[in-house]
Amino acid sequence: MSEALLKNWEKKSSERQKLYKQFLARADKNKVIRELPALHEEAFEQVDCLACANCCKHYSPRFKTPDIKRISKVLSLKESVFIETYLKIDEEGDYVLKNKPCPFLGSDNFCSIYDDRPSDCRRFPYTDEDVFIKRPQLTLKNTSFCPAAYFVIEKLMQEAR
User: What are the pLDDT digits (tens) for 30-45?
Assistant: First the structure.
């Protein structure tokens, strides 16, 4: 059942964005938050991030001050050099990557700074956090390129029927 759910997920997600938006607006937030941890686990039993890496290829996490300090240290760079080399400030005032795909993503889809990656990368796609229901615009975006986020929203909608 779960494997069938992921078949052609990109196309299905694209076609169902309006339904997702309606669902996220109407859903019982507390009920969804309770269901997320189990659905998160189920999603990642089905989805192999190393086979996908869409998030690393097409989007940038925010790099917060602790991330910049930690990663600069690991790379043996001054923070200013790390920022100048890899980051820019986006329209929301956050540090994000200058270029895509992520410069730390290898051709094998492994992250060269995985143990020290930004907190946004650690938390992505927020399928086990209240962010999933409380920031619907972010969730809609994530369902368009992340099979795990798509899986979770589809399961939530099935259970709501």
Answer: 999 999 999 999 999 9
Q: How many domains does the chain have?
A: 2
Over residues 96-134, the pLDDT tens digits come to 999 999 999 999 999 999 999 999 999 999 999 999 999
How does DSSP assign 74-124, residue by residue?
HTT--HHHHHHHHEEE-TTS-EEESSSS-TTB-TTS-BTTGGG--HHHHHT
Rounded to whole angstroms, how far apart are CA atoms 54 and 64? 21
118 with 132, same domain: the answer is no
Q: Which domain holds residue 88?
A: 62-123
The answer on 151 and 132 residing in a single domain is: yes
pTM: 0.92
| pLDDT tens by residue, 73-94 | 999 999 999 999 999 999 999 9
Q: DSSP 3-state assignment of 157? A: helix
Same domain, 139 and 118: no
